[in-house]
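Technical annex, item 7. During the second reporting period the consortium partners agreed on a shared format for inverse folding records so that results from different sites could be compared directly. Each record opens with the tokenized structure and is followed by the designed sequence. A conforming record, contributed by the partner at site C, is shown below for reference.
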């Protein structure tokens, strides 16, 4: 799916102070199946932008088109359905449910069809290399393994777009590289669009395109 941002802006209100302008008239186009590295210094607005692209937050102004559909013209229920159908999101910290086993965590987004999806969930766990952990709890896994589980959970819906916001932030360099490689491979295999926030220049150079943010704007 392709993604077009048209003059996206996001302001946060502050009491008795001027609004903070976090995103300032952002424009870009991401083509279907492209791998994008989103880079920029801390505070540049990367997380704010990727949350809006992932339909988890609304912009203050501007438009976002996914495959030509003006997403924010829809209500919250529409955004929720669109997200569930098309989008996989991997966070900096995995957000796995500690009281559910690994396989249950992967099945959570599709809980009402968990029996039908069990095989698929196991295949994905095998692909990300942690099938042997399926009946264990997240707390028993290493940081890298937990993040692999979070990637598996993001893939269970066969998303056409994967967003990952510094998925390697809590990992050592080597494990982090493996996780980023896994996301790249998964995107290549399925033809899904990937937007990855990364500080790794080597990996960014392998992306189809780098979107660099500075102070809420895109540097071209
Ligand atoms: N809910 C909020 N209310 C007010 N300001 C916010 C809010 N969320 C983010 N900001 C501000 O927006 C700016 C951009 O934040 P954002 O988290 O998008 O940056 P980032 O590029 O992801 O940084 P990092 O690399 O540290 O994760 C920061 O100055 C931050 O303080
Ligand atoms: Mg961030």
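Designed sequence (site C submission):
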């Amino acid at each position: 799916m392709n993604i077009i941002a048209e003059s996206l802006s996001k302001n946060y209100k502050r009491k008795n102070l001027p609004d903070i302008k976090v995103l300032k008239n952002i424009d870009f186009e991401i083509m279907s199946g492209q791998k994008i590295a989103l880079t920029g210094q801390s505070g540049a607005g990367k997380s704010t932008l990727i949350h809006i692209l992932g339909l988890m937050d609304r912009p203050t102004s501007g438009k976002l088109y996914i495959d030509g559909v003006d997403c924010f013209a829809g209500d919250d229920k529409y955004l929720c359905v669109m997200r569930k159908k098309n989008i996989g999101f991997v966070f900096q910290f995995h957000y796995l449910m500690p009281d559910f086993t690994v396989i249950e965590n992967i099945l959570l987004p599709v809980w009402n069809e968990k029996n039908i999806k069990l095989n698929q969930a196991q295949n994905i766990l095998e692909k990300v290399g942690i099938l042997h952990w399926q009946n264990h709890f997240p707390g028993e896994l290493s940081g890298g393994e937990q993040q692999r589980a979070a990637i598996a959970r993001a893939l269970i819906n066969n998303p056409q777009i994967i967003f990952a916001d510094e998925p390697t932030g809590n990992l050592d360099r080597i494990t982090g590289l493996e996780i980023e490689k896994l996301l790249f491979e998964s995107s290549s295999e399925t033809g899904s669009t990937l937007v990855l926030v990364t500080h790794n220049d080597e990996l960014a150079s392998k992306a189809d395109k780098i979107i660099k943010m500075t102070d809420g704007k895109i540097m071209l």
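The mean pLDDT is 93. Residues 86 and 159 are 5 Å apart (CA to CA). All partners now use this format for quarterly exchanges.
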